[in-house]
Amino acid sequence: MEKQNRSGTAGKVIRCKGSAVCRNPGEPLVIEEIMVDPPKAWEIRIKILCTSLCHSDVTFWKISIGPFALFPRIFGHEAVGVVESVGEHVEEFQEGDMVVPVFRPNCRECRDCKSQKGNGCSIFGDKLVAEMPRDGTSRFKGMNGETLHHFLSVSSFSEYTVVDVVHVVKISSEFPAEKACLLSCGVSSGIGAAWKVADIEEGSTVAIFGLGAVGLAVAEGARLRGASKIIGVDLNQEKFEIGKKFGVSEFINPATCGEKKVIKEITDGGVDYSFECIGLASLMEEAFNSSRANWGKTVILGVEMHNTPLAINTYFLLRGRTVTGCFFGGLKAKSDIPILAQKYLHKEINLDGFITHEVNFQDINKAFDLLLEGKSLRCIIWMD
C-alpha cells in the first residue's frame, strides 16, 4: 500500500513562502512567494533545511550575456533537506528521508557511471541543463505565472525544490544538517580531487593554488593521505592561519615573492601534486610549472573565468608531467558521499572548520557580501 503523505501536500502545488529569486544578474536576491509543482516521474520534492553559498553560484549570478544568463532564476546547489513527496517510479527515496542534492548526476546505469575511470554520466551529464534534466521544463512559477529557471539541477535557495533522483543522495537523519550541506559540492570536490583524481600517497609534496573552501578541502584530503609538505598559495595572508587547521605547512604569497621559484626551491625541484582551485589559465600554467619533472601531476579544479585557453610547454609533457581536470573531485555521489559522511562521524575529516558564518534565510544577501569580501569559507543559510 502506498504511504500516506503526512503533510497532505503530495501531488499538489505548494505555495512556497520562502524563495530567494534573482531577477537580474548581479542584483541582490529577492525573497518571494512562489509556486512549486509536485514532482514528476523519477523526481522528488525536497523541503530544504539549510543551504550554503558556493563560488559557482556567484559566478553564474554575475553572468549577464550568453546561454547561461537565465533570469529570473533560483540559485543554490549546496544543501540538505527532507523528502516531502516522491513522483512515479521513485523507489530509492521515500517521504521523510534526509537527502543531499548534488549538481553532478549519478544514474548508476550508464557506461560512465559503471566505470571506475571517472564520474561522468553519459545519460544526464553531457551539459549543464537550465531546467529539469528529463523534460527540460521548470517546476517553479512566480505568483503571476512566470517561469522561474532552475540552477545546476538543484536550486536550493528555496524552502521547497524539485530534484531528479540522479541528483540526490540519501544520508543518515542523525548527521548534522549544516555539515551534510557541505558535502553537496565544494568540500567533497576538494577531498575527492586529492583522493580519487590525484590519489596522493604518504610522503608526497603538494601545492594548492587558491585557499578557498575547495583548496582547503584539497589540503584536508592531502593531510589525511599523509603528505609531507602542503604548500598553500594565496594573496590573502590570513589564509595561512586558517590553512594550518587543514594541514597547510607552508604558505606563499605571490605578491611578496616576485619571480622567485619558491616552490621548486623548498621541494627540491617541484611538487609531486599541484592543484589549481581558482579558475585562471595563468595560475593553471603556474601550477603545472611548479610540479616535478618526470612525474608531477597537476589537477585543475577551477573553472576558467575568462574562457582563456591553457598554454603549456609540451616538452614537459613528453618528460612525464601530466595535467588533468575534474568535476566534483571525481566522486560518484551516491557511493562516495556516504563514505565521506561516515569518515566525519568517525572524526577523521574536519568539516566544522569550513563553517565560518551562519545566517537566516531572510539575510541570504549577507552571505553573498561575506563571500565577495573574502571573509567566509562557507556561510550556512538556515531556512527556518
TrEMBL record:
Q: Which segments constitute the Alcohol dehydrogenase-like N-terminal domain?
A: 43-172
Asked whether the UniProt record includes Metal-binding among its keywords, one would answer yes
PROSITE patterns associated with the record: ADH_ZINC
Specify whether Metal-binding is a keyword of the entry. yes
Q: Which Gene3D superfamilies match?
A: Medium-chain alcohol dehydrogenases, catalytic domain (3.90.180.10), NAD(P)-binding Rossmann-like Domain (3.40.50.720)
Q: What keyword terms does UniProt attach to this protein?
A: Metal-binding, Oxidoreductase, Zinc
Q: Which cofactor does it need?
A: Zn(2+)
Q: Which Pfam families does the protein's record reference?
A: ADH_N (PF08240), ADH_zinc_N (PF00107)
InterPro entries in alphabetical order: ADH-like_C, ADH-like_N, ADH_Zn_CS, GroES-like_sf, NAD(P)-bd_dom_sf
Q: Which residue intervals define the domain Alcohol dehydrogenase-like C-terminal in the entry?
A: 213-338
Q: What family name appears in the similarity comment?
A: Belongs to the zinc-containing alcohol dehydrogenase family.
Fill in the subunit field for this protein: Homodimer.
Record's protein name: Alcohol dehydrogenase-like 1 isoform X6
Q: What organism is recorded for this protein?
A: Gossypium hirsutum
What lineage is on file? Eukaryota, Viridiplantae, Streptophyta, Embryophyta, Tracheophyta
